[in-house]
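Milestone 3.1: sequence recovery, worked example.
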């Protein structure tokens, strides 16, 4: 049995879960998230927690058991407290600024890069070199942060580019120089 799948999911105050067959809806103070589970996976709500069980020992069902529990846990956490990914910009002249709800990045290109947030995501610039991506869907927050990082990933010689907060960039030595 899956170690992760066996763990019950505690429901914080203010979080409502609606189970209709294989459709699960989680509603909290920050919003609502929905998902469809496999027919062989059962989700039950009892004593203020969610319990995920499986009907068979088929490999695909066993694999989906722990994943379903993890996704449901992320949904409960997202609608109650939300998720945030922080990015840092390193490089002379590289900066970010807000323009309404959109994020405008100056990354050394001949044009500024404008990033429009998808539904359920919001950006924040604490300073010109720090970006925060916030939302209730953990997968979407991570994907949007990854997309922003792809505009200028950190390069290994000077470390310039967009990196996750706390990310360590392995540096390479530059040219050794000509010796006479």
């Amino acid at each position: 049995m899956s170690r992760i799948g066996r763990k019950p999911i505690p429901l914080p105050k203010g979080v409502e879960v609606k189970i209709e067959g294989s459709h699960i809806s989680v509603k909290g103070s920050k919003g609502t998230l929905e998902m469809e589970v496999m027919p062989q996976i059962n989700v039950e709500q009892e004593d203020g927690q969610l319990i995920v069980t499986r009907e068979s020992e088929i490999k695909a069902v066993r694999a989906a058991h722990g994943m379903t529990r993890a996704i449901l846990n992320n949904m409960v956490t997202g609608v109650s407290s939300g998720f945030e990914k922080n990015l840092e910009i390193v490089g002379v002249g590289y900066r970010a600024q807000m323009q309404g709800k959109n994020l405008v990045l100056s990354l050394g290109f001949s044009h500024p890069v404008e990033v429009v947030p998808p539904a359920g995501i919001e950006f924040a610039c604490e300073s010109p070199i720090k970006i925060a991506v916030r939302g209730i869907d953990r997968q979407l927050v991570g994907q949007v942060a990854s997309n922003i990082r792809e505009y200028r990933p950190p390069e290994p010689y000077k470390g310039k580019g967009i990196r996750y907060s706390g990310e360590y960039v392995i540096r390479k030595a530059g040219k050794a120089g000509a010796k006479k």
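The domain at 83-164 is CATH 3.90.930.12 (Outer Surface Protein A; domain 3). The radius of gyration is 21 Å.
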